[in-house]
Amino acid sequence: MALPNSEFKNTKNYIDHETVSRRIKSRLRLNEVFKYIFLAGLVFALLVLSTLIYDVVTKGGGWVNLDFLRNFPSRRAAQAGLYPALIGTLWLMMLIVPMVFIVGVGAAIYLEEYAPKNRITSFIEVNISNLAGVPSIVFGLLGLTFFVRTAGFGNSVLTGALTLGLMSLPIVIVASQEALRSVKMELRHASLALGASKWQTTFNVVLPSALPGIITGIILAVSRAIGETAPLIMIGAATFISTTPNNIFSDFTALPIQIYNWTSRPQAEFQNLAAAGIIVLMTVLITMNSAAIYIRNKYTNRH
Predict the structure, then answer these.
(1) Is-contact 225 96, C-beta < 8 A?
(2) What kind of membrane protein is this, topologically (predicted)?
């Protein structure tokens, strides 16, 4: 309701223009300060990252060639390669990705779409979130106790994949739940109103819309798993091996283990080999992430 002219004139007296102007200027100065603080943090992070990349590339760039990728480990640095570690890492990825996708996404769908909203469900969700922050060596101890000693899988590729898969599952479940929650409820209601069942709505409407977020979670989880060393050391992955895995029960080694082995050698040549191994590991990671980002963007544009 519009105020009479006399009342409007009186309300103008309640506004102290000088105080308001001073507060606005103070907030703008504070905004500038925080902007430069955040910029300094970004610049510092980029400088550290650039220094690390420069150090790795200058030390190991000259050692990366076809022989380095095809050779087996050797006590002579000039003849050493990481072929078994590269094959072992690929075996791990081939087992981990389907496992975390089926189990992790399945668990997220149940918790988000089917599970009753009660204290038990909340308790399970809180514990899954807490598991995402558990140190990786704890999962290594779990793998050693359960998969190596109890199940009798030994120091095999299957043990490594199950251990790293368990470590990745909480991240995949939490990310998948967030992706499923982001799907608009109107889409579910529209599908159900057309006569679709709960499963048809979930599989044909909700899951495709949430797939970009789910793939992002799997990328982060698998990227963490591929660079982990502690769980593989705990389950007894080989640090020196002259064969490549030919089934899921074969002994294996992986890129982080091979790099760790080389960094523990006193000779300077093996430090360069470790840097070359890091370059290969980073290349594998970037290739996997690029493929996943392509898939994510494709589904994002579609849905």
Answers:
(1) yes
(2) Multi-pass membrane protein
Is 281 a residue whose pLDDT tops 90? no
Q: Specify whether the CB–CB gap between 60 and 69 falls below 8 A.
A: no
Domain 66-301 has CATH 3.40.50.300: no
C-alpha span between 56 and 273 (Å, rounded): 10
Do the beta carbons of residue 141 and residue 168 sit within 8 Å?
no
Q: Report whether 241 contacts 157 (CB < 8 A).
A: no
Give the model's pLDDT for residue 195.
Answer: 86
Model pTM? 0.79
| Per-residue model confidence as pLDDT tens digits over 130-146 | 887 888 888 888 888 88
Separation between Cα atoms, residue 274 and residue 54, nearest integer Å: 14
- Give the residue carrying structure tokens 């040549």: 269
What ranges do the domains of the chain cover? 27-61, 66-301
Separation of alpha carbons 82 and 252, rounded Å: 12
Structure tokens at 184: 């608009």
For 151, list phi and psi in degrees, rounded to 5. -80, -20
Residue 192: pLDDT over 80: yes
